[in-house]
Structures are given as structure tokens and as C-alpha cells.
Amino acid sequence: MSAAVSRRYDSSLRQDMAARTRNTVFEVAGRFFVERGWEGTSMRDIAQAAGCSVETIYARIGNKAVLLKAVLDRAVVGDDAVLSLADRPWFDIESGRPLAERVAELATVAASIYRRTAHLRRALDIAAEGHAELRELDTKCRADERISRTALVSAAAGRPLTEIEADGIQGIFSNEMYLLLTDRSGWTHEQYQDWAAAMVIRLLDLHEERDHDHRHRSVRPR
Q1: Sign of the CA dihedral with 193 first, then 149, 127, and 49 last
Q2: Which residue positions in the chain have pLDDT lower than 50?
Q3: What is the pTM assigned to this prediction?
């Protein structure tokens, strides 16, 4: 084996090991944040369970708050690839299919996301009450979530949403609602998914019907 080939092999091996370590850190951190909460989770515990040093986590990912944000971001899309949800090849809600089908696909994706993120977001919500840095992160997450949900439903509907519709979407597609219905009310994942799709269709259709009726009532006979 030549020196050049050996260097490339060593580099690839190091990159593979680094990726495996990073994935393990994310998995351990996500589990600990959910099970132990922010206060009960230390970087030392995460490093020990992941089989690496605390210094490695700080160098490759960042501090505890950055790690939580990275775990949340990863949970949203389901992996560590640098691709937004809308850019995923399997995510298609803007095709010419009927609205009900597009919204059903959106609800399926959203439910899958909340299955991964809902308890993590709950951990962040609780921790944010006592930490300014996490309050800022929580506020940013909420703003980003609103923008993303509104844009995705708008794309599925094929038209912009009104402010009232956008407000309603936040109540349907949310980590809090997912937990309320699945954890507290005992719904299955599939029940939430079907309910969310039906509620979005109802919200959008009812608005359109009201506009249609209002326009007809406004036309006076000549």
C-alpha cells in the first residue's frame, strides 16, 4: 500500500469513527434529556455513556445548549444530513394531487416528526423557565416552527394562509398537541395523524366556504 493510499485510508477511517461517535452522542443526549431533563443531564454523563471525552463533545458539537439544539434539529429530519425537510426527495406536497392527499402526506410527516421531537421539546420548555439562554432558544424554535408549519401547509393548500388559518395550524400541528392527545388522552400515533389531516382540511375548506358565502351575500340583485 502506497503512502498516499494509506493516508486516504486513515483519513476515511477517522471520519467514519468521528461520524459514529457524533451519532452516538446525539442518541445518548436525546435519551438523557427526555428521561432526566436538562438539570439531570450532564455533559460528563453523556460523554461517558457515548464512550468519548467531554472535550470531544465540546470540540465537535459545542456546549450543552448547542448540543440540545443539534439533537432537536436532527430529530426533526431524522438524520444528520444537511438537507431541510422541504428538500428531502421523498417529501412532495406540491404536486397536482388532490388537496386531501397532499394534506394527508403532510400530516403523516408531521406526526412522524412529533413522535421524535415532542418529548425533547417538552424538556426544552421546562428548562427554558429557569435559563435565559434556553428561553432564547425556545423562542427561536417556536418562531421557526410557526414559519415552517405555515409555509408547508400553504404549499399543500396551493395558496397563502390567512393569519387566522395560520394560528389554527399551530394548534393542530404542534408538539404540545401531539403529547396532549397521545400521552394524556391515549390516542394512537395513527389517530393523531388522521385527526390532524382532517382538521387541516376542515379549517381550510370552512374558510373558503365562508368567503364564498360572504361574496354571494354581498352581491345585491339588480
Answers
A1: positive
A2: 5-6, 9, 206-222
A3: 0.79
